[in-house]
């Protein structure tokens, strides 16, 4: 053993670089055998909003590739004890050179573009130089921290909104040091992942408006939200029109998702959606779960175009549909088959209505979830029934044409 | 032979020709033009010189030293026909999507682990986007998801902020956890 370590030392003296490199390879190989462990800092606090079945882990980006899944495989212990991961300072080993001071701001800025806003929050308090680079109004460092909110509906509560960052820091909006600007500091460089509101009666709309207004006033700017989900359970359209009127003033949403009951999908409703001119690009999505009604609803909903009115998507085959589509100057239909698991698959038809004369693009996605056995079975009638027994989803997306 | 015509700047024959590049420690490197062109700085020089390009006397690089240029050349050799890198952003968080590196690139950075920041400086000066971005990503790997103590140790950062400045930062950025 002693000989071995002496040999290692000699190697290190002779050729430090190669030795270090080899050692690094050794460790990185060993790492792969270790169980995947997620760093604690990334644990997101429990919130009811994520457990309603709508958002999966992938949606939140925890296990998605967006946030660099390879990062999770990094085992910190390796760096702390076994392997000194510090970067050797400049090749001139006079001890005075310092990586942080010697690298020009421009390069640090480029390095910082790679990390998340949560990491920037840490770095900004490290030293003058990093603070200057990060807070110096760089146009490259635009990343936003994702925050998750839980808000309080009780008018007597001391806080309006409780927000969590990915690093696990919690802030109550009213608890901030400067009351006047508290919201502004919370929402600066942040995006609220999801807001979820239910409307059962007209008082709900009043309450929602008051709440959004207060939050917006506190923040001094519109509330940045990725998805605003509105569950609308009212029968009349009037309140919805009201919502569409005040919503863009208070919320800067990237996506607006409406979830409705079935019987509201009619011509009048469609008109209301059509009139809604969002100031930001807002997608309106009508998710609709049903086995039977959706077809009629779809046919009614597509009123703005004569094209869709005249056609029954279910009865006409794809070739015919595409022929009519092309004759009318529309894009042909794309059919996508998604294999989710060995036992089920999704069949998605995307109907895109895109015409130079239209101000909006309508994208209708019809999803059929059906079992794989469906194909193998030779009994025609049984096949049909089996297919009907699964749910179908209709998603409508309206986008403003640039 | 003294002056070579560089009219057909993009012609394949020219890419096969050798050019001499001199670094600041007076080392001469004989490089194929096609390889040297990965660096936009050198490419611009070649184009600017045009007719008057003297392939034998070479191009001086006053800001790069020999050992580093050797490493950069290794990268250029591998990436001479590589397409332009694409920088993508997550639309919601506006975070940069990280590049996936090939086996060769991983090995390259593993080999020159202790020279990453020299490489970053050289790549910035020589304008080699692929090397520059990749090196910066490698450096950012050390910041990502770590605790403040780890970062401080890793980069050898001295705490040069006063208490008032820290309080100010804490006031303006409520998310600052450290």
Automatic annotation (TrEMBL), chain A:
Residues 97-145 form the F-box domain. It comes from the Eukaryota. InterPro entries: F-box-like_dom_sf, F-box_dom. This is F-box domain-containing protein.
TrEMBL record, chain B:
Pathway: Protein modification; protein ubiquitination. The keyword Ion transport does not apply. Transmembrane segments: none annotated. Pfam families: Skp1, Skp1_POZ. Keywords: Ubl conjugation pathway. GO terms for biological process: ubiquitin-dependent protein catabolic process. InterPro entries: SKP1, SKP1-like, SKP1-like_dim_sf, SKP1/BTB/POZ_sf, Skp1_comp_dimer, Skp1_comp_POZ. Residues 19-81 form the SKP1 component POZ domain. SMART domains: Skp1. CDD domains: BTB_POZ_SKP1 (cd18322). The keyword Transmembrane helix does not apply. Residues 130-176 form the SKP1 component dimerisation domain. Belongs to the SKP1 family. Probable essential component of SCF (SKP1-CUL1-F-box protein) E3 ubiquitin-protein ligase complexes, which mediate the ubiquitination and subsequent proteasomal degradation of target proteins. Regulates cell proliferation during embryonic and larval development. PANTHER family: SKP1 (PTHR11165). This is Skp1-related protein.
């Amino acid at each position: 053993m002693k000989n071995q370590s002496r040999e290692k030392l000699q190697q290190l003296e002779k050729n430090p670089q190669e030795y270090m490199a080899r050692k690094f390879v050794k460790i990185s190989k060993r790492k792969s055998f270790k169980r995947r462990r997620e760093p604690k800092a990334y644990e997101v606090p429990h919130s009811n909003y994520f457990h309603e079945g709508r958002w999966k882990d992938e949606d939140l980006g925890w296990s998605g590739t967006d946030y660099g899944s390879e990062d999770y495989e990094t085992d910190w212990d390796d760096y702390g004890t076994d392997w000194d991961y510090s970067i050797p300072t400049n090749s001139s080993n006079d001890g005075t050179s310092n990586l942080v001071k010697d690298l020009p701001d421009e390069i640090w800025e480029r390095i910082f573009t790679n990390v998340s806003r949560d990491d920037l929050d840490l770095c900004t308090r490290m030293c003058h130089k990093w603070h200057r680079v990060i807070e110096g109004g760089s146009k490259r460092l635009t990343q936003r921290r994702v925050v998750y909110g839980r808000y309080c509906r009780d008018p007597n509560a001391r806080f309006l909104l409780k927000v969590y960052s990915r690093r696990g820091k919690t802030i109550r909006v009213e608890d901030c040091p400067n009351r006047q600007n508290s919201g502004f500091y919370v929402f600066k460089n942040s995006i609220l992942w999801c807001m979820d509101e239910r409307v059962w009666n007209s008082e709900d709309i009043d309450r929602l408006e008051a709440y959004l207004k207060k939050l917006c006033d506190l923040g001094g700017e519109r509330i940045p939200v990725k998805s605003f989900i509105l569950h609308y359970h009212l029968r009349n359209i009037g309140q919805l029109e009201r919502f569409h009127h005040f919503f863009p003033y208070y919320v800067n949403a990237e996506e607006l998702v409406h979830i409705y009951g079935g019987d509201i999908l009619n011509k009048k409703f469609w008109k209301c959606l059509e009139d809604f001119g969002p100031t930001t690009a807002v997608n309106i999505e009508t998710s609709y779960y049903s086995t039977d009604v959706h077809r009629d609803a779809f046919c009614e909903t597509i009123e703005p175009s004569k094209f869709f009115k005249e056609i029954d998507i279910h009865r006409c085959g794809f070739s015919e549909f595409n022929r009519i589509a092309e004759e009318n100057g529309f894009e042909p239909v794309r059919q996508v088959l998604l294999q989710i698991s060995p036992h089920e698959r999704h069949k998605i038809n995307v109907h895109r209505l895109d015409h130079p004369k239209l101000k909006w693009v309508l994208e209708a996605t019809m999803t059929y979830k059906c079992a794989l056995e469906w194909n193998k079975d030779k009994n025609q009638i049984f096949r049909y029934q089996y297919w009907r027994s699964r749910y179908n989803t209709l998603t409508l997306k309206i986008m403003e044409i640039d | 032979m003294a002056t070579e015509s560089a009219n057909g700047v993009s012609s394949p024959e020219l890419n096969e020709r050798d050019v001499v590049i001199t670094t600041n420690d007076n080392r001469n490197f004989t490089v194929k033009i096609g390889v040297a062109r990965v660096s936009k700085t050198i490419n611009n020089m070649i184009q600017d010189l045009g007719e008057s390009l003297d392939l034998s006397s070479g191009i001086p690089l006053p800001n790069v030293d020999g050992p580093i240029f050797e490493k950069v050349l290794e990268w250029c050799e591998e990436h001479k026909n590589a397409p332009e890198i694409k920088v993508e952003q997550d639309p919601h968080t506006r975070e940069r999507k990280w590049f996936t590196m090939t086996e060769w690139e991983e090995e390259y950075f593993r080999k020159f682990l202790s020279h990453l920041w020299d490489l970053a400086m050289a790549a910035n000066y020589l304008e080699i986007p692929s090397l520059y971005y990749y090196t910066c990503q490698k450096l950012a790997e050390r910041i990502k998801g770590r605790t403040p103590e780890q970062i401080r140790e890793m980069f050898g950062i001295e705490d040069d902020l006063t208490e008032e400045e820290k309080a100010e930062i804490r006031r303006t950025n409520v998310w600052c956890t450290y």
